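User: I'm writing a tutorial on reading structure tokens. Could you give me a worked example: one chain, its sequence, then its tokens, then a sentence or two explaining what the tokens reveal?
Assistant: Sure. Here is the example chain.
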Amino acid sequence: MSSGKRIQQLREDRLLKPGDIELASWLIAETNECSEYYISLESLAEIEQGSVPDIRRLLSLAQCLRVPYEQLLLLFDIDLRETACFHFLPALSSPINVSEDKTTALPPIEMQKESDLASDFDAQTDPDETILLGPEQLECVPAELRGKLHPDRYCYALIGLKDDTMGGILPPESVVEVDEQQVEVRNFEWKVLCERPLYLVRHQYGYSCCWGEQEGDELTLLPHPLSQRKARHFKTPHEAQVVGKVVNMWMPPQVH
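And here are its predicted structure tokens:
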């Protein structure tokens, strides 16, 4: 069996879809602030057809498949025990950080399970919808996470229980840190998914945390393709306003 077929078999044995690999590798790339860890659907297809990935994508693929990278190297006839130059390989770090400030990376925080976090908030708040967390609601955030927040500098939002706008990138009960000083939607040719910025937007229906495009006074909110939601269009500033850019995120432990 070829290396590509064996990698495909490993993926299918773990009930992982190509989109799962793309998303997991996006998080690894974001965590390590290096787009070379990202495995697009096209790249994965090429690997499963027999192409040889570079070392960073191989490291990322090993973590996505939850197998030692040495095992994947053996599929390409590379035995680390016989290859002295690979005795030291770069380790993947653990924080999930999307901040442009490279000095403020924060580790992922263990959050309450199930819907415990959402149920702690004011009864008048709909836990199904994404909300902006005020000072009183921040007091309901688990202490281990609350100690990492900087409400004097950033604002925070909680992704609603039924808000799947960004798929697995921002699953329900994720907490996002938003820089209110970055309200301009940047339009540029991003090369990989992990380079595309996320924004928190206040609009006539509530709050959305997603990708965005701005053309004149028309703001388009773009969901993740896996969410199967449609893009939405608003006129700014009357129908919608950008609260700020997402610079950090913490996801519930069950989705790490």
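What the tokens reveal: The longest helix spans residues 18-31. The beta strands are 131-133, 155-158, 175-179, 199-203, 206-215, 218-222, 232-235, 240-250.
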